[in-house]
Design brief:
The chain is α/β, with parallel strands linked by helices. It contains 15 helices and 5 strands. α8 crosses α9 and α14 runs antiparallel to α15. The structure holds guanosine-5'-triphosphate and magnesium ion (MG). The site of magnesium ion has 2 residues, from α2.
C-alpha cells in the first residue's frame, strides 16, 4: 500500500522543449523553482515558443497530439511582446488567445526570466538606488551606458536577470514605498508562473485520473475487508468522479455542479448518454465514473432527505 501511495502521489513530471533560444532552460528553472519535477520524458509536455508559432512548433504539436501527450504551449518572453494596450503582457495574452486554435492546446504567456532567479542582496540594493535615481530605460544599451552611481557591471547583471520590464516594475514598486521583501512576490506575479502552473495542472487531469484508476486496480488485487470498504465508500466513489470531471473539463466540456437530487439525476443521465456516444475509451471510463458518482450522490441526498 505504501508503494501504491508513493506512485499515486508522486510529483508531476514535466518535459520542457522548444526551438533554440526561446527560453527552454529559463522556463524549466522557473517551473522547477515552483516545485515541478523536470524530466526528459514527462507526464506533461511544455512546448516553449516566443512571439510566434513556427511551422516546426506546429509539427511538434501535431506529433504530441497524435500520441495523446498532455501539452501546454508557453508563450515566453511576454515582456517583449510590444506595447499594445495594457502593456506587453496584456498584448501577449491577446496573442496567446489567437494562437489557441492554431496550437490546438492551451497557450499561456509567461515571463520566465522573472520566475527563474532569486536576486542576491547586492542587486536588491542596486534596485533601491535606481528607484531613488531612475536610469535611462529607453533601451538596454542606454541603461548600461548612461552615467549612474550603480556600477555598469551591476546594471548589466540586472538587465540579464530582469530585463528592462522587470527593472521598470521593480523600481516603480520601490519608488512607491514597497520594501525589497515585496520584490520576490512581485516578480513571481509578473512572471505569470501561477497561471502557467494552473494550465499545466488542468492538462494533467488525465494523468491524475489514470493514476487513480491504477491505484484502485492495485488495491483491488491487494484485497481484504478494509480495502473492500475503502473501494465502495462514498468518499472514494465521489473522489474518483472528481478526477473524471477534471478530465472532461480539461477538454472544455461542462459538468453540472448542482447538489440537489434533480441535478445528480440529470448529470447521471447526461453522462450515461455521453459515454454511449462517439468518445474514446478514456472518456467512456470518465463518463462511467461520473454516472457512478452522481448516482451515489443521489443516494446520499435521498438518504439525508435533501
Ligand atoms: N526578456 C526575456 N528574456 C528571456 C526570458 N526567458 C528567457 N530569456 C532570455 O532568453 C535567452 C535564452 O534563454 P534560454 O533559457 O537560455 O533559452 P534556451 O531555449 O534554453 O536556449 P538554448 O539552450 O540556447 O537553446 C537568455 O538570454 C534568457 O535570459 C523572458 O521571459 N524574458
Ligand atoms: Mg538552453
Amino acid at each position: 500500500m505504501a508503494e501504491i501511495s508513493v506512485h499515486v502521489s508522486a510529483p508531476l513530471r514535466v518535459e520542457v522543449r522548444g526551438r533554440r533560444g526561446v527560453g527552454v532552460t529559463t522556463v524549466a528553472s522557473a517551473l522547477a523553482r515552483a516545485g515541478l519535477e523536470i524530466a526528459e520524458r514527462g507526464d506533461v509536455v511544455v512546448v516553449v515558443i516566443a512571439e510566434v508559432l513556427k511551422p516546426e512548433d506546429r509539427a511538434v504539436l501535431a506529433d504530441l497530439a497524435r500520441r495523446s501527450r498532455p501539452t501546454v504551449v508557453v508563450l515566453n518572453k511576454a515582456d517583449l511582446a510590444g506595447s499594445g494596450p495594457g502593456g506587453p503582457v496584456a498584448t501577449a495574452h491577446r496573442r496567446a488567445g489567437r494562437l489557441r486554435a492554431l496550437a490546438g492546446v492551451p497557450v499561456v504567456p509567461m515571463v520566465a526570466l522573472l520566475a527563474a532567479t532569486c536576486l542576491p542582496g547586492q542587486l536588491m540594493t542596486a534596485l533601491s538606488l535606481l528607484a531613488d535615481e531612475p536610469a535611462d530605460l529607453t533601451s538596454a544599451d542606454a541603461f548600461v551606458a548612461g552615467p549612474h552611481q550603480v556600477p555598469r557591471a551591476v546594471r548589466a547583471e540586472l538587465l540579464e536577470r530582469l530585463d528592462r520590464f522587470g527593472i521598470a516594475h521593480a523600481t516603480l514598486a520601490l519608488s512607491r514605498g514597497a520594501g525589497v521583501e515585496a520584490l520576490p512576490p512581485l516578480l513571481r506575479r509578473l512572471s505569470e508562473v501561477p497561471q502557467v502552473l494552473a494550465a499545466i495542472d488542468a492538462v494533467a487531469a488525465p494523468v491524475r485520473y489514470r493514476r487513480v484508476r491504477w491505484a484502485l486496480a492495485e488495491l483491488r488485487s491487494v484485497g481484504g475487508p478494509a480495502v473492500e470498504r475503502f473501494l465502495i465508500a462514498d468518499d472514494t466513489v465521489v473522489a474518483v468522479m472528481a478526477a473524471a470531471v477534471d478530465v472532461v473539463q480539461a477538454e472544455g466540456l461542462t459538468v453540472d455542479t448542482g447538489s440537489d437530487r434533480r441535478a445528480h439525476l440529470c448529470r447521471a443521465r447526461h453522462w450515461r448518454r455521453y459515454r454511449d456516444g462517439p468518445v474514446n475509451a478514456l472518456h467512456q471510463r470518465c463518463g462511467d465514473d461520473i454516472v457512478r458518482g452522481s448516482l451515489r450522490l443521489l443516494g446520499m441526498a435521498v438518504g439525508s432527505g435533501r
